[in-house]
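# nightly structure sweep
# worker-07 picked up a monomer target from the shared queue
# config: single-sequence mode, recycle default, output format = structure tokens
# input follows
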Amino acid sequence: MSLWESIVTAWNTLVSNKMRSALTVLGIVIGVSAVVFLVSFGRGHKANVTAIFEAMGANAIYITSATSTAGALAGSIGSLTMEDAEALTDSRRAPSVDMVAPMIEKMCTVIYGNENSTVDTIGVTPEIAQIVDYPIAVGRFISQEDVSRRADVAVLGNKTATDLFGNANPVGEWIRISGRKYKVIGVVEEKGGFMGVADDFVMIPLSTMQSRIMGLTSPRGRPVQTIAIRAISTDHIDSAREEASSILRQRHNIREGEDDDFVIIDMQEILNRMEQVLGIFQVFIASVGAISLLVGGIGIMNIMLVSVTERTREIGIRKAVGAKRRDILRQFLVESAMLSFSGGLIGLFIAILGTTLITGVKLGPYAVKAPMSPDIVIIALSVAIFVGLASGIYPAYRAARLDPIESLRHE
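# output follows
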């Protein structure tokens, strides 16, 4: 019997038992569709997370005080100052540092008319808009002149603007932050993030924040909570970290062997860790689908064993007219492979339909992505066929070893 004859015979056998065949492949259908859909969705989610972090500055490095944030918010002495930030701008001592932006943050109540919201209020300098991507939707960003004259101006995050003003243009309006009036000069474009957190903020000039809201003092100089710096390129992130650490240790009189009183974190490191976590997540969700494939494989093995028992007399007749063991073996392997392959095709169709339906759905400014790449399709179908063959080996081997005389006597 040729391979083609085995395929035709297997097809006729499966078609003659439609309900049983459909129930048998159900596990494969669920497994393949789950694996393909979840892996595609996981890849798309990973791409969106990467885009969010890159928007926060691929070359960005953040330096924060190692002391308690609560203490800094209460107005106590911090370990970082404006003078530290100015020292980091020295191109001779820090040639890998391209730009520096000191910041202070505090949760404040923002009021407009009858609307109010408690949001993250950030004191910044103009450089932060070049270190972190803050595209302006309407109005303008904080300028150096605003910082120099301690101007009472504010730039709103997209969600904060919507919460306070609805769909109206807030530029030129006055809001109250911690009881003081500030003129809105701009609104940042929607950036996204979980539950819109990345859009829920107000930015004011750093000098205004220091003098009118925080009132921080320190014998070292003018305290800040965070210093954001940008490396000249992603290849110079490590050297920028080392240069910043060396300068700050010297300025803070930290001796060799003593712990730093500051913490340095770069976005590339955070992104790498996040990608590792997402990679583990993808493996986990793929494993969930693989369990369905395993269950489907067990179902195929079970039904093939039943088929061997039902067709014992048929096997005896085939052997009596000259069929060899390899013909019987191939016949049952082809049937199990066809079961799993057909289940794989149906599962793939369902997965494609699912990814098509969710692709483009807006979650904040980011659209859901579920890319259906060829490697996912090839791997899913290959695994489905492999499961079918693996599940059919024992039933096929058992059928091939049946004694033809005993098989003919079987009722």
